[in-house]
Specification:
318 residues; alpha/beta; Rossmann fold; 6-stranded parallel beta sheet
Length: 318
């Protein structure tokens, strides 16, 4: 998702070019339907699969190969690619793979701008304004979202707020009881309609939060990522942890409030005013740890503080 602005810039710079994207299968649907891509190449795990992948890439003899991930595996693919220009970042132990190495900024920056630096390194014009995140949502998914809203009597005259209270990383999860208190506040004080979003393996967490609430909220059914994007698009606001649905909200041009703990919000949150950040004032904030026995960075962000940000954002929401 966070690389889609790069695709748009490349298409504008080279409208007749073949643009291919290498991706792992779980993320295929994020890019499927993108009108600027000629091919989406699936990377499969396993030595033989990777060997065949490298052979396939070598046959293409690409003019440019951009490695935006920069891990050991993608560095090796880049090194053996036979691409004329291999562009990657100056990560220690991996920069050998590229003949054009991009120096990283010392200060944290939005990851989209970080990726765009790779294009700047080869003289591609980025333009005065950053290209937005994008995701193609087919008509079937849009119809699904319309029907879901109608079936659940979600009235667009009242604010519809999506809540995404999960994350793959435990240290990025705001307490479930806080989400329950916040949802109740938004319903009782602002006549909001709350939709809880979830993905594979997360439904029990959502049900636990719902059980703590005094008011009624809506839980979406199991959906694919296109349907999820269509549902988020119909919301007035998304409140979430630092997770995937937050980036979908940015792509769908839906305002967001994101609660950050161990991750650096400067890297993962766009700087625009309609996407707000909440962080606790603790010494360890932005530690990037995946395990923590304290979790004070999350515990000290109270529902009342989120409510304050919500009130300041009402011009974007209503």
């Amino acid at each position: 998702m966070l690389t889609t602005p790069v695709i748009s810039v490349l298409h504008k710079a080279f409208p007749q070019a073949q643009i291919d994207f290498l991706i792992e299968k779980p993320f295929f649907d994020i890019l499927s339907g993108n009108p600027y891509l000629n091919n989406i190449i699936i990377s499969k795990k396993g030595f033989l699969n990777q060997l065949n992948l490298i052979k396939k890439i070598r046959k293409e003899k690409y003019d440019f190969l951009f490695d935006f991930l920069g891990n050991p595996r993608t560095a090796l693919i880049s090194f053996f690619s036979k691409a004329r220009k291999k562009i990657g970042f100056d990560f220690r132990g991996r920069k050998f793979a590229y003949n054009i190495r991009v120096k990283r900024d010392d200060k944290p920056k939005y990851i989209v701008d970080f990726k765009l630096d790779a294009l700047r390194a080869v003289g591609i014009d980025i333009g005065d304004e950053r290209e937005p995140l994008s995701m193609f949502v087919p008509s079937g998914a849009q119809t699904f979202a319309e029907n879901f809203f109608a079936d659940n009597n979600l009235d667009k005259k009242k604010p519809v707020i999506g809540i995404s209270p999960t994350s793959r990383k435990q240290t990025r999860i705001w307490p479930g009881e806080y989400f329950a208190l916040l949802a109740d506040k938004l319903i009782q004080k602002y006549n909001a309609q709350i939709i809880f979003l979830w993905g594979p393996g997360e439904i029990e967490k959502i049900q636990k939060i719902i059980s703590l609430m005094k008011n009624k909220a809506v839980i979406i059914p199991r959906v694919d990522i296109k349907q999820l994007a269509a549902l988020i698009k119909k919301c007035n606001l998304l409140i979430s942890n630092d997770n995937g649905p937050k980036h979908i909200a940015v792509a769908m041009e839906v305002p967001s409030i994101t609660i950050y703990g161990p991750t650096q919000s400067e890297c993962w949150n766009p700087p625009e005013q309609e996407h707000r950040v909440l962080r606790a004032d603790v010494a360890c904030i932005g530690c990037n740890q995946n395990e923590c026995f304290s979790m004070q960075c999350m515990d000290k962000v109270t529902p009342e503080k989120v409510e304050e940000v919500f009130l300041r954002m009402r011009e974007f929401i209503l």
